[in-house]
Amino acid sequence: MALSCARLCSQLSLVRLCGLRTNSVTRSRYSPYVSYQSSLPLCRLYSSTKVRRGIGRYVASKLQLANAKYESFLKRRFPRFYQLYHTFMEGFKLLFQDAKEVRRIKTKMFSEGVKYQDLPYRDMEKLRQFRRNMIKAIPLVMISIPPFANYLVFVLMYFFPRQILIPHFWTPRQHVEFRGVYHSLRAQHHWPVLKGLESTSHRVQNGSLQGRLKDLCAKMQTGGSPNVSEILAVRSLFSGPPLGIKRMRVDHMRHISSLLFLTPRLPGFLLGRRLNSHALELLQLDRALSRLGLHQLTDSELKQACYVRGLNSDNLGINQCREWLSRWLQISSALKESEVSLLLHSIVFLSANYPHVLCRH
User: Fold this and answer.
1) What is the pLDDT of residue 50?
2) 8 Å CB contact between 350 and 311
3) Is residue 265 over pLDDT 70?
4) Residue 195, Cα to own-chain centre: how many angstroms?
5) Could you tell me the sign of the dihedral formed by the alpha carbons of 279, 284, 288, 293, in that order?
6) What's the CA gap between 253 and 358, in Å, rounded?
7) Are 290 and 333 in contact (CB under 8 A)?
8) What is the pLDDT of residues 283-315, one digit of tens each?
9) Measured between alpha carbons, how far is 177 from 12 in angstroms, rounded to an integer?
């Protein structure tokens, strides 16, 4: 309907334009002082572009009005479904905004020749999080491609929001609940990692380093929290054998992968590559954060930064989160790229007993 109206209006404007041109030519035969240019403003009044724009604005306003009435109906008659519907709509808006932001960052990197490690902290974190979200969202999109499959997808999204949806489509209550669930799954691997370190310590040839590693594991197992200096004292063990990323046992790598929410069901050589890639990415993210400064982060950004590095920050205060993240950055800033295995193990060293230590004090 809108297309036919636009076509009709364009034809009318063409007829009027031809009529004006005919009249101007006729008048020029008898009145040479009448200017042909004086008819041009009249032509602009009947521009088909303006007609199309007017119709587009009219249709958009009608759609907005219908959508507002529909949302009002849902909110009044089906409040629980309205909350789900509203969360989905806001989630799509946030996802679209993230896509635009990622496109801007990628364009800047391409046009200005900016490397990934030189990006500001927020741009680097945006790229990292968007990539992980898309990896989780792509299977859901593929399932919804067949006809009428979107109804099945909607059912799955309703009953399995944590497994199916990305955080954009979680409610605030689900954010806290699901982050707690994920952290409890991650915390199940703290003890196996410590047991793996303890058993590995017997294979360390250097007696001094062996004693320091054993003391570190014993302190963690008794509920203590090691100092930054105690962690850095064993850094040389994590650059080569026996605890370098490519030198660890496969079962130990599987537990470390679970700390990063990576699938452990891969061959050993693939596990090593993925761990090394994510560890280097985390190290670059830490360096960008150090350049920015912790005081520049908002409260939500501070809690998210702690959560990414292994600490469930939902039940902690802002000062506690800042103090913990400061200790993490002290370790990270002292490490070389060949020592990133220690950075991954610091997830256990710094976060396993942190809330319990606070409770005792």
Assistant:
1) 63
2) yes
3) yes
4) 33
5) positive
6) 30
7) yes
8) 999 999 999 999 999 999 999 999 999 999 988
9) 62
pLDDT at 359: 39
Residue 301: its pLDDT value, please?
Answer: 96
Containing 264, the helix (H) or strand (E) segment is none
**The residue type at 89:** M
Whole-angstrom distance, CA of residue 13 vs CA of residue 142: 47
Length of the chain: 361
C-alpha dihedral sign at 49, 51, 54, 60: negative
Dihedral of the CA atoms 54, 59, 65, 69 (nearest 10)? 170
Quick count: other Cβ atoms within 10 Å of Cβ 127?
A: 19
Q: Are 262 and 277 in contact (CB under 8 A)?
A: no
Going from the C-alpha of 139 to that of each of 98, 135, 257, the distances in angstroms are 19, 8, 21
Which pair of tokens denotes residue 68? 């507002």
Q: What is the three-class DSSP state of 163?
A: helix
Spatial distance between the Cα atoms of 179 and 167, rounded to a whole number of angstroms: 10
Q: Phi first, then psi: give them for residue 276, nearest 5 degrees.
A: -65, -40
What CA–CA distance (Å, rounded) separates 2 from 342? 64
Residue closest to 86 by CA, chosen among 106, 70, 104: 70
3-state secondary structure of 286: helix
Q: Specify the higher pLDDT residue, 48 or 38.
A: 48
Q: Which residues contact 7 (CB under 8 A, 6 or more apart)?
A: none
In whole angstroms, what is the distance from residue 311 CA to residue 85 CA?
32
* pLDDT at residue 23 in the model: 41
Of 241, 265, 269, nearest to 341 (Cα)? 241
Start-to-end Cα distance in the chain: 73
| 24 pLDDT tier (thresholds 50, 70, 90) | very low
Phi, psi for residue 317 in degrees, rounded to 5: -80, 165
